[in-house]
Design goal:
Elements (H helix, E strand, L loop, with lengths): L6 E5 H10 L1 E5 L2 E4 L1 E6 L9 H6 L7 E3 L3 H14 L5 E6 L3 H4 L2 H9 L4 E7 L33 E4 L6 H13 L6 E7 L6 E5 L6 E3 L8 H12 L4 E5 L2 H4 L3 H11 L3 E3 L14 E4 L6 H7 L4 E5 L5 H4 L10 E6 L2 H4 L5 E4 L2 H11 L7 H21 L9 H11 L5 E4 L4 H8 L8 E3 L8 H16 L5 E6 H6 L3 H7 L5 E6 L4 H9 L23 H7 L3 E5 L2 H13 L4 E6 L25 H11 L10
Helix pairs in contact: 3-5, 3-17, 7-13, 9-13, 10-14, 15-16, 15-22
């Protein structure tokens, strides 16, 4: 390492690591490192150069050893979500399959608008040793490689072909990670030779820099137009999305709703924007929603959507609203603010709600509308209470959720992802504290649950060490990706994992049956290539990875086991069988568009197609 007053000679890899270690963010009244560290699996594509550089920054940028690159990406996404996109983790993987394993997690971060930095090995820039181990050759385009696949699933993509490019590329990548409108994953490909090349970098490049997340102020005319439309409403409604939390606008949302007595419904990403007991919280909306929220959605005349991309599970594939309803969309991203002919307010939720409030100060929601909404929520609460009652038929997801909900600490964080559990948690979980629910349904990705729980716990331990991370996972997702049970034990980042076994992919079997199809290849018992299906011993499996594990048969036993898990200082896995057919939450659903066969030799399929299509006339046309 050669230094002068103005420059310092470093390898490309050393410069990247030194730069990241000197980036800070001002958040919650203090300055902390913007990058919380990383997740890494070394191979020949990243161990010799990037590994050497990271070894010198073990304290500043702690590196967590992963078991699977895809799960590392999930953990990084959950870490960022726990920190409300104020901090991020990097993932480093070797060239070839190590890197391509990150594609799915990059797509998850992209869909959920979450910051994650990928520093991945690439083929040699000189091509002198080509073809190298794990290189994918394109005969007509030698510049093309597997890392180019990330262009479709990242917000920022670069390949470093000279050390000096780091000076431009890293600030641009970080700007993307912190931008409220364009936030998403960033990918930087690092050719194996370039990682070790040296350059005389300006020392000023490594000076401490303190970042702040930009707050976009809305256009005055957009606020005025939104206020005029909202004040004309006889039946207004607010849809609160995940962007409310990322903006830190929970208090502003609550004050705005209270000022005008406007009912609030929550998206899946926006669960835990308001407490379950708040009189204006009318419940979750959409396909995995509540009767209460969906009942007022179809009657609302003006809908204020805040921080939501209006995904089909929120909108019931655009059948959940009256054809004449008008939308106002507050969003930092122009693309989201203008969806479905919304009146757009392009701006930060916290700033926009505050400005809109001052413009609407003489407005009040008709009392009859607010009371009707609250009566609907009262009815929904009664349904949920009955739905989660222990010993209400066979063991169900809802009963397990209700049992844990009744016993957990208000600040415990709940995580669910693909399968039936996201819908069941969204419908049945009663929020005890704001910002405590992570239902990954932007990409609905199996395998996120346990890996995401590990990443969330790393973040949670930095800010709320006395709270627990509670993971709800089905047997299908558990079998797909579970190795971060081992990671959590090794790193002493405790999780409580509730593993609910229904014998296969039961929620897709339910969809299969609901569309007139016979059960086929979803439940283990319905797979023609399986002759003797048997249950996995999840308890023994989890224990083999160092967790404390036990199996329970009833919700009463589940509650007792959960108390033991809370008292433990080690990752704890509780396993229980649930019914694959009964016990689903039957209320609270809107129509959802799925592709069904227009013709079939099976009359049940044809009948189901006609019934499914009968709701299409309610579908709004838009963009």
């Amino acid at each position: 390492m050669k230094t002068s007053e103005q420059t310092i000679r470093l390898t490309t890899a050393q410069a990247i690591v030194r730069y990241l270690a000197n980036q800070y963010i001002a958040t919650n009244g203090q300055e902390v490192r913007l990058c919380g560290g990383g997740f890494g699996i070394f191979g020949h594509g990243n161990v010799t150069c990037l590994g050497e550089a990271l070894n010198n920054y073990k304290t500043e940028l702690p590196l967590y050893r992963g078991q699977n690159e895809q799960s590392m990406g999930f953990a990084a996404a959950a870490y960022a979500k726990q920190h409300l996109r104020q901090r991020f983790m990097f993932c480093t993987a070797s060239a070839g399959p190590g890197t391509t394993n990150l594609l799915t997690s990059a797509a998850l971060a992209h869909a959920n608008r979450l910051p994650m930095l990928m520093l991945c090995g690439d083929t040699f820039l000189t091509r002198l040793p080509d073809p190298v181990l794990q290189q994918l050759e394109h005969f007509g385009n030698p510049t093309l490689g597997v890392n180019d696949a990330f262009k479709a699933v990242t917000r920022y993509w670069d390949r470093i072909t000279h050390p000096a490019q780091v000076i431009q590329s890293l600030p641009n990548a970080l700007a993307t990670l912190l931008d409220p409108a364009d936030c998403g994953p960033a990918f930087i490909g690092l050719p194996q030779d370039v990682q070790g090349w040296v350059y005389d970098f300006p020392q000023s490049f490594f000076a401490k820099k303190v970042h702040r997340v930009r707050r976009i102020s809305p256009d005055e005319l957009e606020i005025q137009e939104a206020a005029e439309l909202l004040k004309s409403a006889k039946c207004p409604m607010i849809i609160a999305g995940g962007g409310v939390q990322y903006s830190g606008a929970v208090a502003e949302l609550t004050s705005f709703a209270e000022q005008f007595d406007i009912p609030v419904v929550e998206t899946i990403a926006g669960r835990a924007n308001m407490l379950a007991t708040h009189p204006l919280n009318i419940g979750p909306i959409g396909v995995t929603g509540s009767n209460s929220a969906n009942a007022i959605a179809e009657k609302a005349d003006v809908i204020l959507a805040v921080g939501t991309r209006l995904q089909d599970f929120t909108t019931g594939s655009w059948t959940a609203f009256a054809p004449s309803a008008r939308f106002i969309s507050i969003n930092a991203a122009r693309h989201d603010a203008g969806k479905h002919q919304s009146l757009p307010v392009v701006g930060d939720a916290k700033v926009s709600l505050s400005q809109l409030l001052t413009q609407c100060n003489d407005y009040k929601t008709p009392e009859s509308w607010t009371k009707l909404s609250q009566e609907e929520r009262k009815n929904w609460n009664a349904y949920v209470q009955k739905n989660v009652e222990p010993d209400n038929g066979s063991n169900s997801y809802a009963q397990a959720i209700g049992t844990i909900n009744a016993l957990c600490d208000p600040r415990d964080r709940v995580i669910a992802a693909a399968g039936g559990l996201p819908a069941e948690v969204a419908a049945n979980w009663r929020t005890l504290s704001t910002g405590t629910v992570d239902i990954e349904f932007g990409f609905s990705c199996m395998g996120y649950e346990i890996a995401g729980g590990w990443g969330a716990r790393i973040a949670q331990a930095e800010s709320e060490p006395d709270a627990d991370t509670i993971v709800f996972v089905g047997d299908g997702s558990y079998l797909l990706m579970n190795s971060d049970i081992y990671s959590s034990v090794l790193s002493q980042k405790k999780m409580i994992i509730i593993t609910l076994d229904n014998g296969g992919f039961a929620v897709i079997n339910k969809l299969q049956n609901n569309t007139g199809n016979e059960s086929f290849n979803n439940l283990l018992s319905d797979c023609p290539t399986i002759q003797n299906p048997f249950a996995v011993d999840f308890e023994a499996h989890a224990a083999s990875m160092g967790a404390i594990a036990e199996t329970v048969e009833t919700t009463k036993e589940l509650g007792e086991a959960f108390a033991r898990a809370k008292a433990s200082d080690k990752t704890y896995v509780i396993c229980m069988k649930v019914d694959a057919y009964e016990g689903w939450t039957k209320e609270g659903h809107t129509w959802w568009e799925v592709g069904t066969p227009h013709i079939s030799d099976d009359p049940n399929v044809t009948k189901a197609h006609k019934e499914w299509e009968s709701s299409r006339d309610k579908q709004r046309r838009g963009v």
